[in-house]
Amino acid sequence: MPKRTTHTYSSEDAAPDGPNSDLFVYYCKHCSSHVLITDTQLQKMPKRKTDKAHVLDKTKHLARLNVKEAGKVLLKRGEGKLEKQFRMSCSGCELFVCYRSEETLEHATFIYIVDGALSSVAAETNPQASF
Questions:
Q1: Interatomic CA distance for residues 101 and 109, integer angstroms
Q2: Which InterPro entries match (predicted)?
């Protein structure tokens, strides 16, 4: 008779390279939906002086987004200066979480993450989740 073995896995085992992974997952602070996976911590990213948004350089860091397009906005920044923002919102609650200056996400070098929009911890209960 062949030997039988039992294997037990936990959610910590499911993360790439275990709990000490080099990937960081960020969630919407409002609804806890998954929004961003990157290989750098949000706190280590530089911040813009104008709106304190975190700047994610896609040429240096991985950026996997789970967002919806939220339209284009023109902002007046000082005298004679205009800034185009192509906004992106959380796919769960449609809260504005990040933007870019290029029209297409593929051509955008930088992703600007709104200060205070994301959290590294998902809430215990997600009211938007459907089971």
A1: 9
A2: STEEP1_dom, UPF0235
Residue ranges with strand state E in the chain: 24-28, 34-38, 54-57, 63-65, 67-76, 82-90, 96-100, 110-113, 118-119
Provide the token pair at 55: 């700047």
What is the rounded CA–CA span in Å between residue 70 and residue 86? 7
Phi, psi of 36 (to 5 degrees): -140, 140
Tens digits of residue pLDDT in 24-66 = 999 999 998 999 999 999 999 999 998 999 999 999 998 899 9
Q: Using CB atoms within 10 Å of the CB of residue 47, give its burial: 0 to 12 exposed, 13 to 18 middle, 19+ buried.
A: middle
- Model confidence band, residue 98 (pLDDT cutoffs 50, 70, 90): very high
Q: What is the pLDDT of residue 21?
A: 64
Domains annotated on the chain, with CATH = 17-119 (2.170.150)
Q: Which two tokens stand for residue 128?
A: 């938007």
What pLDDT digit, counting tens, does each position of 55-83 carry?
Answer: 999 999 988 999 999 999 999 888 888 99
**Type of residue numbered 25:** V
